[in-house]
Amino acid sequence: MLRLAPVFLGRLARPRAWAPVLRRGGTASGEEELFVFPEYEQEPDEAAAAAATAAATAAAATAATTAAAAAAAALLPRREREPGRERRKRGSVVAEAGRPDPSVPLSGVSCSGCGAELHCRDSAAPGFMPAEKFRSLSEGPDGAAGLRGAVCQRCWMLAHYGRALRLELPAEQHRLVVSAALRRPPRHGRGPLLLYLLDVLELPDPVLSQLPALLDPDAPVAGLLVVGNKVDLLPADSPGHLGRLRNRVAEACAQAGLRGAPLVDIRLVSAKTGFGMEGLVSRLQRSWKCTGDVYLLGATNSGKSTLFNTLLRSDYCKSRAPDIIDRATVSSWPGTTLNLLKFPIINPTCDRIFRRQERLKEEAGKTEDQLSNEEKKLLNSLKKQGYLVGRVGRTFERQKSSTVIDFDPDALSYSIDEDPKPASKKREQREDFTYNEVKDARWCYDTPGIVKENCVLNLLTDKEVKLVLPTTAIVPRTFILKPGMVLFLAALGRVDYLEGEKSVWFSVVASNLLPVHVTSLSNADAVYKKHAGYELLKVPMGGEERMKDFPPLVPQDITLKGISTTEAVADIKLSSAGWVAVTAPPEEKLLLRAYTPQGTTLVVREPPLLPHISTVRGSRIPGTAAYRTKKPPSLVENLKTAGRG
After folding, report:
1. How far apart are CA 208 and CA 242, in angstroms?
2. How high is the pLDDT of residue 572?
3. 132 vs 144: CA distance, rounded Å
4. pTM of the entire structure?
């Protein structure tokens, strides 16, 4: 007689934790901590057996006590065994996340997250995967093809744990990969289109002027389209602010020597919230069509991988591509992408363009109330993240077949005389393109970001980078200072108001997580010495030990003349930590002294990026130099306002 096995079903239903866990083991040199991936974690039965084997040489009483403790710990919920806060604290200092095996050859298969070749030979090299996982995927019936779709240890840690593993990869290596890709012989008789992505917060872009040196003069590109990204993070300081931002990008291109015929267009987008993305796709399909390959270029942290992923789920790629090609790994850590990633571009025939335009017209006529619950939820989430939001849809999405559940009752039951047998796992077959789909395909490539020199991010840890780089809408913070006052932006920048006759407004545009501290000039040095590395200034973090390795702040004197009480005269850009917009009365002469860490770049940006940013504020807080903050509302692109005809 057959019956269902509750124990076996319980094992099948047991949830597996996605957070990495720590294992401790005593060594001759002391206590060792190893990072263990959840998919490599032993089952409770296996762990108990391993513990019993290790304790076999000890006294019987000790072995019994150890086995009982191990069994009890295995049965306890994870939170009771190891509190989450303590796990995170200990996990942050772990250096490794798997063991290498130098004897195993390279796979020839790229990581689907960063593009590096997968291997298990050296944990400090790009593309490393722990040997246990590497063998389990590559030694199956498919051989090395079993690694398709897998990600390296670094991408896994970034995606699931937010940790960046340090790699022994010179900054010049990113540049060499990009240069080699751009110097390939032209395919289909025409050079590629370069889609250069720049972060509007970083203007003037530090890498744009280096672009001509990466190209082969004997194989010129067919065109250059410059895309200003992350416009969703900046508040509208006055009507027409997007037009002014576009002009600033155009000025940066002119200063870098990029003008005339090669410069196809300049677009402003948010790859994260989707603002401007439908317009970018239409521009690419209308002008470039499908006549050649496209390369996404730009500095680190400009958002290339986010743009790649957004285009992958848009009308710009072949309809089956999102089901076949994995999304690129996205993180705030500079240089996440290490090699080329790509997807095939769809051919924008007249019929496809017509169907796409019909979809866009239909969606533009909808109000927010007419959206589905899922669309409303996504829209509300994006509104919290940025000031400018757009919806990216797909016209040519392939209809997915209904899922068929293969139910085998014999695998879930057994007789009273039999032990339950685990069900054999059927390996999921990955889809692939047919030969006809890709034989003449044009491809969109995501390239490694070019590392910015003299950038403060190069001095920071992964935790500090997360605090410095803004990921949500920036709320400007305005202060009114008299001569003899000082403004600190964390411990990464400082602006002294040395000489002037009247009070001046200083508006900070930086990550909302970075603290701003105002003090007097006489106390400024003491404040920095006492609080740098601690909670008041927050970044860097780690106390005196951290500040011993952090370069000192170096000064630069700045003279400005005021324009208006509502219009800033200049931005003082403190490397990549943010900037301070200075607004002063007309003809007011100012002497300022700005500080950034030694080896980083300080830029005085004239004219300022957001000239009227000081007006985006609330009332002044009594007894302080600060104004209450004010966050403008979000704007949704291509969505009809309710009540409007």
Report:
1. 21
2. 98
3. 14
4. 0.72
